[in-house]
TrEMBL record:
The gene is tgt. Zn(2+) binds at residues 303, 305, 308, 335. It catalyses: 7-aminomethyl-7-carbaguanine + guanosine(34) in tRNA = 7-aminomethyl-7-carbaguanosine(34) in tRNA + guanine. Residues 246-252, 270-274 are annotated as: RNA binding. This is Queuine tRNA-ribosyltransferase. GO terms for molecular function: metal ion binding; tRNA-guanosine(34) queuine transglycosylase activity. The keyword tRNA processing applies.
């Protein structure tokens, strides 16, 4: 089996488990830092690992345009090229073609588009996406699918879901069963429970090593997303990992785990770290704010990251963010990934101990306190 899933405990719908890949174990629920172009921006692989991350994500769309999948393959694959030895998940490129590329033309065959980097013309299909992900050598590959932006009409959602399911069958066919690499199917269907169920049934018939809930975090809002997650995970096989793509803020992550999601990814901790935002148990702190200018306290008391445990003050972080020093984005990225890593570890502990509901109450209570009073 290219991928194993060991479900160790459940607490309500929340699940504690381990995903086994050829390159190591992923403890779930897991948050996957995003290494868009083969690097988690501002962080060395060992530092990313040190935040508690077992797996990182790479983006097919970015890597196919630059430096090119064939080049990465010639240089030994994405693990060797990037220096990350652990498991890597690659997306299919579909979502970012829709959100970043210009001059898209979508047909049953695939998507023709212009690169957002240099305008060159490219083509992505289920077959080409599987080929690229094989060249990159990711441990977990994703089916090529189409994800319509929400809100969209039911007819549009249904037609898109049906094409994505035909593309899922083509993805499986092209991917094959290589033995050391796994393929995840992606459920679509927007906010429609019956379309989600139909999509899940089509995917189960094809058969995948894991299943993603796709088409969320595309503008529908948290309440609508949780509404889908109240039924979507249970429509997918219980004995396989469930991955919610592109989520999210800490309270989104907690709500998704509560509803039975095992894996997530989001650019939020890294991107917000580069724009001066630090996530703490008491919410998001904007280090650009002048209130931190004379504050000698760490960003978050008790956090083991170099920004907090390294003796840096909020005043220093404010200073390096405002003066656009590289170390500002690096330290805040490090802190934010550490925060997410500890959040996932805390949830795994709570699920294992059968006290997730208590833990969740504490999580929300601390956030409701808000940030420290200014000095
Ligand atoms: Zn910290």
């Amino acid at each position: 089996m290219a991928l194993t899933f060991d479900l160790k405990a459940t607490d309500g719908a929340a699940r504690l488990g381990e995903v086994g890949t050829a390159r190591g174990v992923v403890r779930t629920p897991a948050f996957m830092p995003v290494g868009t172009a083969g690097t988690v921006k501002g962080m060395l692989p060992g530092q990313v690992r040190g935040t508690g991350a077992d797996i990182v994500l790479g983006n097919t769309y970015h890597l196919m345009l630059r430096p090119g999948a064939e080049r990465v393959a010639r240089l030994g694959g994405l693990h060797r090229f990037s220096g990350w030895e652990g498991p890597i998940l690659t997306d299919s490129g579909g979502f970012q073609v829709m959100s970043l590329a210009g001059l898209r033309k979508i047909t049953e065959e695939g998507v023709r588009f212009a690169s957002h980097v240099d305008g060159t013309r490219h083509f992505l299909s289920p077959e080409r996406s599987m080929e690229i992900q094989a060249l990159l050598g990711s441990d977990i590959a994703m089916c090529f699918d189409e994800c319509p932006a929400l809100p969209a009409g039911r007819d549009r959602i249904a037609a898109s879901m049906e094409m994505s399911m035909r593309w899922a069958a083509r993805s499986r066919e092209a991917f094959g069963h290589p033995g050391d690499r796994a393929l995840f199917g992606i459920q679509q269907g927007g906010l429609e429970e019956d379309l989600r169920r139909e999509s899940a049934e089509r995917l189960r018939e094809i058969g995948f090593e894991g299943y993603a809930v796709g088409g969320l975090a595309v503008g529908e809002g948290q309440e609508a997303m949780f509404g889908v997650l109240d039924h979507a995970p249970a429509q997918l096989p219980a004995n396989r990992p469930r991955y919610l793509m592109g989520v999210g803020k800490p309270d989104d992550v907690v709500g998704a785990v509560k509803r039975g999601i095992d894996m997530m990814d989001c650019v939020l901790p890294t991107r917000s770290g580069r724009t001066g935002q630090g996530w703490t148990a008491r919410g998001m702190v904007n280090l650009r704010n002048a209130r931190h200018r004379d504050d000698p306290r760490p960003l978050e008391e008790g956090c083991p990251c170099p920004a907090c445990a390294g003796g840096y003050s909020r005043a220093f972080l404010h200073h390096v963010v405002r003066s656009k020093e590289m170390i500002g984005g690096m330290l805040l990225t490090w802190h934010n990934l550490t925060y997410y890593g500890r959040l996932m570890a805390a949830m795994r502990g709570a699920i294992g101990a059968g006290r997730f509901a208590d833990w969740e109450r504490g999580f929300h209570a601390r956030r409701a306190e808000g940030d420290l009073e200014p000095v």
